[in-house]
Amino acid sequence: MIDHGYGFRERCLFEIIYLEMMFNIAIDSQQSWRFAHVESVQELILESHFTPSSHWIVTSNHGYISYAQEELRRSFGQLKSRMLVPGEMALMELPASSTEAIERWQQEPPIFGRHIQPVHLAVKREGLANGPAEELEAMCALWLERLSASSGLQAGSGTRVAVHVRSGGARTEEEKAIREAFRSVIERSGGETVLAEPEVIVTVVIGEAAIYAGMMTHAEAGSDWPGGAMRFQREEGQISRAKFKLLEAERTFGLDYSAYRHALDVGAAPGGWTSLLLERGVHVTAIDPANMHPSLIGHPQLTYVKRNAADVPVEPNEFDLLVCDMSWSPKATAEMVIRLMDGVIAGGTILVTVKLMHKKPLQTIRDVTAMYAEHAQIIRAKQLFHNRDEITLYMMKY
Ligand SMILES: C[S@@+](CC[C@H](N)C(=O)[O-])C[C@H]1O[C@@H](n2cnc3c(N)ncnc32)[C@H](O)[C@@H]1O
């Protein structure tokens, strides 16, 4: 990961006085808050190297931020980047306006940039959450005014707002204090703070020296989850953690597994994916030389073929869904899946994990997608939160 030494002009701290804004807040809320110590926001002016320019916090799975950066560099031609959390979070400046940037990645969604959030405001972190709660609330009210002005979005009067506060490591008291302060300000101004299906998301990242805040719509964020980290509760008797990958694919790609009739699960053992498809009412043919979990054996909707997938023949039009989570070389897996796709109807769905065991993930993805592209439309390639050293390909058979 190249760090360009992109700095903030920390020497050029601008004290921006918001007396007028504070006056309005005091009148509107009719609260007797103690504003005495909250007279200014110490805003950090982010350096701009491009015109137009926009700043973003980009988050990837651990170890993949350099690939997220490379993807954005290829898409935008150039960028500036500064690491915030090693391997997984960076502050990036792109040579495009916010609107252009969002349009670009809505058309070409990034594979490794798991979550991209705008930076509309950067402030000095020092001492912010140490004072009384009402002072932090007053500060957050000022920030919110700034975020609304920069983003053109509102968080008050009936708007459903999610507040996502993150820092690099484990959850901290500071995160909690800032989240609570924002919630309180939003509720006071008539907004409704929610966890799911918000209209607007206020995003805050606590960096080492600075706090970065932004505001975006739910559609722009593409996820209800802070940093795109979609978390599921582990169920009693769950067969494998791998099940979370298929669950996340279902939500991320907007699939409805219950709409499928017959799925082929290649490399199915011990059966996390198979169990989810069975729960959705799909008939599953599971292929794996390894053992399926005993709880699945004898399931009336399951056909278990205990063999190497290379030796299993398929009949045309047997399946409307093919899923493959086989741990093997990406190209050899692609060859095998392409042969098995003969058993899938035209328009059928293919979901495949591509293992990134090599040092050149972008090249591997290019090679493998080129192989699949002759037989299927690649709808989306994405490293899901639950993908470790792999990505998920979502395709439709021609
Ligand atoms: C990561 S596990 C799959 C986990 C599964 N998706 C789940 O939810 O439990 C990979 C599986 O691929 C299987 N596998 C590897 N090579 C295979 C092949 N040639 N044919 C069939 N299965 C294979 C392995 O036996 C292993 O069980």
From TrEMBL:
GO terms for molecular function: methyltransferase activity. Keywords: Methyltransferase, Transferase. It holds the Pfam family FtsJ. The keyword Transmembrane does not apply. Residues 240-327 form the Ribosomal RNA methyltransferase FtsJ domain. Signal peptide: none annotated. GO terms for biological process: methylation. InterPro entries: RNA_MeTrfase_FtsJ_dom, SAM-dependent_MTases_sf. It comes from the Bacteria. PANTHER family: RIBOSOMAL RNA LARGE SUBUNIT METHYLTRANSFERASE M, RIBOSOMAL RNA METHYLTRANSFERASE FTSJ DOMAIN-CONTAINING PROTEIN. This is SAM-dependent methyltransferase. The lineage of its organism: Bacteria, Bacillati, Bacillota, Bacilli, Bacillales.
